[in-house]
């Protein structure tokens, strides 16, 4: 089979095409194809294609496309730059917020540590204060027992007194002064707490007659009179008899025929004196360093 003769111009065209860069070749062929389409359209419309005009038109189109593309690229670059600025600003703001929050957390942690130290100190102070309160309450209990304003329990003696069956109520009945004498004898003998017919004897107790009746703590009592005294059962009753007041009371009991029975009791329960007796009407606590008011004369 005989090969077709080579045309010198065609060979040079092929060689030039193979040596043309791909991007340049694509652009040239695209422009050539656009030119052919424009020329064909003009022929169909009855005109004649002008190579100069076609190339001019195609060149303007390419320039327009390149300009638009460049504008878009520029716009994208500007937008990207703006976005980058916004991103950088947002990142800086976020970092500032993180640093601020970390500083706030550190401050709160220091505050928590200080509060824990204060709480520990407050607990120690509370324990110390509770100890002081317990001591004060113990002192108050002891003072209340001594003064008669706290209920007490303990061993002691019970003395039951009564008038003679046919005694003269005006001269031979037991009077307030007789009971006061017996109470003084019990205090002297070592009694720690005393009650008469359930009325506790306190530092403010008054034993007095109201007509023929006797009142203790402003409450009337009637015979038989039961005197309870807490103290050492081994010595209390004997010391009452040995005291001057006790001896005088024994003489009166014998003269007027009063019954007088004494019993040792393993456990006595005495109530507290009425709370109203603890209210001071006129006396007030003096201020520190103050001077007592001087008398009129």
TrEMBL record:
Q: Which UniProt keywords apply?
A: Coiled coil, Membrane, Transmembrane, Transmembrane helix
UniProt-listed Pfam families:
DUF881 (PF05949)
Q: Which GO terms describe its cellular component?
A: plasma membrane
InterPro entries hit by this protein: DUF881
Where does the record place a coiled coil? 105-139
Ranges that cross the membrane: 55-78
The organism's place on the tree of life at top rank: Bacteria
Annotated family: Belongs to the UPF0749 family.
Protein's name in the database: DUF881 domain-containing protein
User: What organism does the record attribute this protein to?
Assistant: Nocardioides humilatus
């Amino acid at each position: 089979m005989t090969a077709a003769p080579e045309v010198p111009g065609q060979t040079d065209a092929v060689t030039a095409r193979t040596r043309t860069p791909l991007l340049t070749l694509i652009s040239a062929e695209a422009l050539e194809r656009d030119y052919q389409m424009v020329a064909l359209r003009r022929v169909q419309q009855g005109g004649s294609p002008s190579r100069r005009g076609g190339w001019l038109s195609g060149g303007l189109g390419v320039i327009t496309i390149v300009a638009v593309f460049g504008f878009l690229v520029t716009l994208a670059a500007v937008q990207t730059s703006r976005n980058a600025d916004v991103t950088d600003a947002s990142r800086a703001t976020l970092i500032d917020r993180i640093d601020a929050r970390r500083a706030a957390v550190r401050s709160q942690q220091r505050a928590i540590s200080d509060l824990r130290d204060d709480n520990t100190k407050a607990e120690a102070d509370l324990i110390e204060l509770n100890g002081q309160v317990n001591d004060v309450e113990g002192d108050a209990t002891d003072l209340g027992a001594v003064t008669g304003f706290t209920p007490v329990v303990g061993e002691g003696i019970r003395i039951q007194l009564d008038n003679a069956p046919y005694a003269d109520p005006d001269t031979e009945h037991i009077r307030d002064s007789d009971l006061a004498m017996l109470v003084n004898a019990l205090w002297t003998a070592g009694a720690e707490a005393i009650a008469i017919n359930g009325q506790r004897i306190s530092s403010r107790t008054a034993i007095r007659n109201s007509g023929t009746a006797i009142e203790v703590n402003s409450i009337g009592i009637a015979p038989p009179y039961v005197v309870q005294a807490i103290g050492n059962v081994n010595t209390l009753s004997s010391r009452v008899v040995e005291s001057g007041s006790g001896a005088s009371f024994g003489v009166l009991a014998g003269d007027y025929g009063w019954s007088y029975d004494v019993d040792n009791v393993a456990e006595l329960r005495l109530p507290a004196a009425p709370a109203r007796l603890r209210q001071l009407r006129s006396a007030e606590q003096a201020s520190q360093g103050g001077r007592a008011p001087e008398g009129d004369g």
